């Protein structure tokens, strides 16, 4: 019996194994399923018809399936013929012995076909909306590969369909603005962790002028959505029109840019979920790579130009690494490389975080400023090219709301500027601050060295302070204030020395003040030019709308020095009082016993008046004046001079007019040589005898004049006169009477 079973087993083995091998590799021809296959194809889709010459049945021993291979297959989809290289149908073994056609899956392969043929095939099993989208996306090119189409037990198309293949020389229109050209890719079906998908590897292709070789796109289907993860490698040149189109995809704001062009090599990760209706959700992206060269034309920023006077709004970057990460909550950008300022490149490193919910920017970084000019006007500090320097900073701001300097450090040789916790409003007015440490050098000489701290009150103390910028600002009206309306504090200041820009430095400088709602409502200042020469300044509040400013200085030169039209001023004592209100300020200025020289406008006036001798004196040792008094009022940037009278041994001048600061000067008045003035006054009964005796003069008494034009190009005209206006005589007599009384005392 055992021999019988052994023989039977051997016979079966000898018969079955070769038969299985034969059926696996060579198969057998049959027409058993021809009609059934064609009818089933119509059941799947009424627009689909299968064509083939004959069928061969193979055995798939690994899966115990029959494989029906159609010979010379083709598909007719709505009368569109697609030539296939393979169409294999997988059925259970029992289908061969029964009429029950239970299709498990189909494998469809085709050689190079027009890429449009893809939609002809996918219409069999993809939703109509998806297929229409594919038809718009695929413009031209070739497609080759293999579809795997699974079937359910009820004959319907399964979900685990897949594709392996290659797209070559294709043009794909992702949107109206984005077209991928000359695209060659490999597409592979991937299945893992309960999800299946595709991996697309780009071998060749470009979007705009950027090469895409090496890019990959991974698609994973899960339930009702497809997860897309892509790595795009872009290398080449880009321009502004491309940047604007790309920015719209990522919701980036380019309104501050005027032009962009350059050469880049970037890797961009873009991840998102794609819903049934092609709705994009959970978008995130990141960019990393190298910028070989990039020109960015931005709008000019006055705040930057103020500190970097040669800053060019055309920013040039080279050899710069970029990292950009975008998420639901924020966008982070990091740049590290070289930035061009004027003719040189400086290295820099900047990190910016933009918070979408708060619309806030957090920016920190470090910039080498060795090859840049730096100017800090308020400290009278200037740095030229070549001096080793850098700035590191950490700032936070919301445009049109606030600007906070968490930390700022500027280092240049021995110069140190450190700001800590400075809070500014949208107009760059100080709301609050913690600390400022300042040490600057001008022409290798220390001109600032002090510390500013704020706790319960503001304390400022140090060795030296350069007051020149503050003195210049006394004569200029500005809409920008230092402190915001929310700033309230007491201030205490002590400096060993205050520099004025002349030989009139102030020592033992001390000030106490109170700031209320952003402006001084109380101030008391004292200092010494020498043991017997002082300067005092006070501000006090009269009522809600009015303040009084008073200045007494035993040296006038520090205040007069900043008038552009006076190049030489010596001596003089100054008294100044101003009633300050919100709309208008009324002021009275008196300067006594001073001498001027190198005053271009006055020199021209004297020459035109044929007073060459006095003009020569002006350009030589200078003209002395006993007094100068000016009554004026200011509104905005316009200084209206009601009356200004200067009297001296050589000449006397009475004038009025206005000065639109920084724009135009318009003055008119009368100039009289002192000898002629004395002669005229001497003729006045009683008063003339008392003041100047009985002297007479001859010829022209004086000249009337007009001066008008920009501060640096004032046009002067004169007209000789024989009689003086009553106003001139009255004002001269008043001054002479006052002088006589002072001499009697």
Which SSEs are present, and which pair or pack?
Elements: H1 2-25, E1 28-30, H2 34-44, E2 48-51, E3 54-60, E4 65-71, E5 74-77, E6 80-83, E7 86-92, E8 105-114, H3 117-122, H4 128-137, E9 138-150, E10 162-173, E11 179-192, E12 195-207, E13 210-211, E14 216-222, E15 225-239, H5 240-250, E16 257-274, E17 280-298, H6 302-307, E18 314-326, E19 330-341, E20 344-355, E21 360-368, E22 374-376, E23 381-383, E24 389-398, E25 402-412, E26 415-425, E27 430-432, E28 435-442, E29 445-454, E30 458-466, H7 468-473, E31 489-499, E32 506-516, E33 519-528, E34 534-543, E35 546-553, H8 557-560, E36 568-581, E37 585-597, H9 600-608, H10 612-619, E38 623-635, E39 638-647, E40 651-660, E41 664-673, H11 674-682, H12 687-691, E42 702-709, E43 715-721, H13 726-744
Parallel strand pairs: 30-31
Antiparallel strand pairs: 1-3, 2-5, 3-4, 4-7, 5-6, 7-8, 8-9, 9-10, 10-11, 11-12, 12-13, 12-14, 13-15, 14-15, 15-16, 16-17, 17-18, 18-19, 19-20, 20-21, 21-24, 22-23, 24-25, 25-26, 26-27, 26-28, 28-29, 29-30, 31-32, 32-33, 33-34, 34-35, 35-36, 36-37, 37-38, 38-39, 39-40, 40-41, 41-42, 42-43
Helix pairs in contact: 9-10
């Amino acid at each position: 019996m055992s021999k019988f079973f052994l023989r039977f087993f051997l016979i079966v083995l000898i018969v079955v194994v070769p038969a299985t091998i034969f059926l696996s590799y060579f198969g057998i021809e049959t027409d058993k399923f021809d009609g059934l296959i064609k009818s089933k194809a119509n059941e799947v889709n009424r627009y689909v018809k299968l064509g083939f010459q004959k069928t061969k049945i193979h055995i798939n021993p690994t899966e115990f399936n029959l494989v029906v291979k159609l010979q010379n297959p083709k598909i007719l989809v709505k009368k569109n013929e697609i030539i296939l290289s393979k169409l294999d149908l997988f059925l259970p073994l029992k289908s061969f012995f029964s009429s029950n056609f239970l299709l498990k899956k189909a494998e469809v392969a085709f050689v190079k076909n027009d890429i449009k043929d893809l939609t002809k095939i996918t219409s069999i099993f993809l939703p109509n909306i998806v297929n229409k989208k594919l038809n718009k996306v695929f413009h031209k090119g070739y497609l080759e590969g293999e579809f795997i189409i699974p079937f359910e037990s009820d004959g319907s198309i399964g979900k685990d369909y897949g594709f392996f293949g290659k797209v070559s020389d294709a043009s794909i229109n992702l949107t109206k603005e984005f077209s991928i050209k000359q695209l060659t890719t490999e597409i592979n079906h991937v299945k893992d962790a309960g999800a299946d998908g595709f991996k697309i590897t780009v071998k060749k292709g470009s979007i705009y002028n950027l090469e895409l070789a090496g890019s990959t796109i991974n698609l994973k289907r899960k339930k009702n959505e497809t997860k897309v993860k892509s790595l795009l490698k872009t290398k080449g040149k880009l321009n502004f029109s491309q940047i604007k189109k790309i920015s719209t995809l990522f919701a980036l704001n380019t309104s501050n840019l005027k032009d962009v062009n350059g050469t880049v090599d970037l890797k961009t990760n873009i991840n998102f979920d794609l819903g049934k209706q092609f709705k994009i959700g959970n978008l995130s992206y990141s960019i990393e790579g190298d910028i070989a060269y990039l020109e960015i034309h931005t709008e000019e920023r006055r705040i930057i130009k103020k500190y970097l006077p040669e800053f060019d709004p055309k920013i040039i970057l080279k050899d710069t690494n970029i990292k950009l990460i975008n998420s639901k909550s924020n966008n982070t950008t990091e740049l590290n490389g070289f930035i061009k300022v004027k003719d040189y490149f400086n290295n820099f490193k900047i990190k910016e975080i933009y918070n979408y919910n708060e619309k806030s920017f957090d920016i920190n970084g470090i910039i080498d400023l060795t090859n840049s000019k730096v100017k800090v006007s308020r400290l009278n500090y200037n740095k030229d090219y070549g001096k080793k320097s850098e700035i590191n900073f950490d700032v936070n701001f919301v445009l049109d709301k606030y600007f906070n300097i968490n930390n700022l450090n500027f280092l240049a040789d021995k110069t140190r500027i450190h700001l800590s916790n400075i809070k500014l409003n949208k107009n760059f007015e100080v709301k609050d601050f913690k600390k400022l440490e300042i040490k600057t050098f001008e022409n290798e000489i220390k001109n600032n060295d002090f510390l500013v701290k704020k706790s319960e009150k503001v304390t400022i103390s140090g060795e030296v302070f350069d007051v020149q910028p503050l003195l210049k600002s006394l004569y200029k009206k500005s809409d920008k204030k230092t402190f915001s309306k929310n700033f309230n504090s007491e201030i205490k200041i002590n400096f060993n020395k205050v520099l004025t820009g002349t030989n009139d430095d102030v020592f033992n400088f001390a000030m106490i003040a109170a700031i209320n709602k952003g402006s001084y409502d109380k101030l008391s200042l004292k200092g010494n030019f020498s043991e017997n020469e002082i300067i005092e300044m006070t501000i006090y509040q009269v009522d809600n709308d009015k303040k009084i400013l008073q200045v007494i200085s035993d040296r006038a030169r520090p205040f007069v020095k900043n008038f552009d039209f006076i190049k030489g001023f010596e001596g003089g004592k100054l008294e100044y009082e101003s009633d300050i209100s919100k709309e208008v300020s009324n002021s009275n200025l008196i300067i006594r016993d001073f001498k001027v020289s190198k005053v271009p406008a006055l020199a021209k006036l004297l020459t035109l008046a044929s007073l060459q001798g006095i003009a020569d004196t002006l350009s030589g040792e200078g003209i002395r004046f006993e007094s100068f008094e000016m009554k004026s009022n200011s509104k905005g940037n316009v200084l209206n001079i009601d009356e200004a009278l200067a009297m001296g041994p050589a000449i006397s001048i009475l004038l009025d007019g206005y000065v639109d600061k920084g724009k135009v000067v318009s003055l008119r008045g009368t100039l009289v040589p002192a000898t002629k003035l004395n002669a005229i006054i001497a003729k006045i009964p009683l008063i003339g005898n008392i003041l100047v005796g009985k002297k007479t003069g001859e010829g022209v008494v004086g000249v009337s004049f007009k001066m008008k034009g920009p501060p640096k190009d004032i046009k002067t005209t004169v007209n000789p006169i024989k009689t003086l206006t009553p106003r001139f005589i009255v004002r001269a007599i008043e001054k002479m009477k006052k002088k006589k009384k002072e001499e009697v005392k």
